[in-house]
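sorry for the late reply, my laptop died twice this morning and i had to redo everyting from scratch. anyway the thing you sent over, i finally got around to it. pasting the sequence first so we're on the same page, its 304 residues, then the predicted structure underneath. double check i copied it right bc i was rushing
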Amino acid sequence: MARVQHLRRKHGLLTAQESQRWWRHWREPYLLALSLSWPLFLGLLALVYLAINLLFASLYLADPAGLAGTAAGRASFAEAFFFSVQTLGSIGYGALHPVSLYVNLLVVAESFSGLLFIALSTGLVFARFSRSSARIRFSKLAVVHRYNGLPTLSFRLANERGNNILEARVRAYLSLDEISHEGHHMRRLLPLPLERDQGIAFLLVWTAQHRIDASSPLHGLSVEALERLNAELVVSFSGVDETIERPIHSRCSWPMSRIGFGLCFLDMVEVEQVKDGDDRHRIDWSAFDRTRNCPLKPAASLRS
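ok and here's the structure:
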């Protein structure tokens, strides 16, 4: 429990920050290569490529006379390094060529290493390009306000790509600390049923709502109790991107500091009058995160 609380204090959002800690995959090179950002990934490839050439250049220098075509009759480090680059890339200009058995064996080993390096790097680049990703924007705050007479937890999400996401589904959970009667500490994820948790297609904006009634895990808990339990709202989104026809996933979490009690979202739909007398509806994206005061009674409790 102390470890969990330390991580939460350090990173703010434990659940949201977990995906950014790419270095935890250092024991699994494939996962590490996929979790790195593109600059770090390309930089790592360049370092591996440089290390391979430096290694073989040092090995070539063990027999400097084994390379023919050098300027001084004996290979310098620069000549050995660039010969390694030519061999690894199967370039073969012909100016430098091996003449001793030792150097020929090194060329065989480096050629095989080059095949493996090119195959692995090409596969990793393809895997990164072909990996599906979701550009789902979540509201900065989750809010709690009265809706149809009951306290209601609400948050927003938007599809930033603007294309259809088929079979879209949103799931919400309340994450909190629990201590059993025997004194065991555990982090619980309690499902929060939503008014609408799935849709045939998701194109623009979705305001998800959870009614805090007698069956809700939030029912009867005050704000102070939620803070004491280190409560956190955790949300996952999944669907199928209509363009690439692949599943996509996204997630977000809101700690108590980012849950606004007594607030509600501003309406994003604006109605404009046009010349022919018809109304034109327009979405105001600047209002996505904006809220206004919505009294919640009693103010410090989620009881209905």
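The longest strand covers residues 165-179.
thats about all i looked at so far, will dig more tmrw
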